[in-house]
Known about the structure:
Layout: H1 6-36, H2 54-74, H3 79-93, H4 97-115, H5 119-129, H6 132-143
Helix pairs in contact: 1-2, 2-4
Amino acid sequence: xxxxxxxxxxxxxxxxxxxxxxxxxxxxxxxxxxxxxxxxxxxxxxxxxxxxxxxxxxxxxxxxxxxxxxxxxxxxxxxxxxxxxxxxxxxxxxxxxxxxxxxxxxxxxxxxxxxxxxxxxxxxxxxxxxxxxxxxxxxxxxxx
Length: 144
């Protein structure tokens, strides 16, 4: 039987929860910026908003790091595609250069943490995360 440390479970749980929470928080901030702050409604382009709130930045790095870690673990070779997709998305939502650098730094830290999980833990994670359906879902998110 494979045993995991508490840290390994925490990394996996954070990976799952960040991916689920990120979409909700981005949508919540967009609605807040459009309606509560009075930024002119939904017709106003996102690029004209002020810098993205730090609460979003705090989630983007670990979320991206989880995707990079999953890509590494599964050997899918999508690092360049992830980089292009996220760079374009960061510009589209109005991240500043400093925020973008902070997100990438946190993403690489999280990716490195995932790589430090012992081999038996990685084998179990690979069995759960590297399925054909997971790859299909991964590809569809990068395409859209």
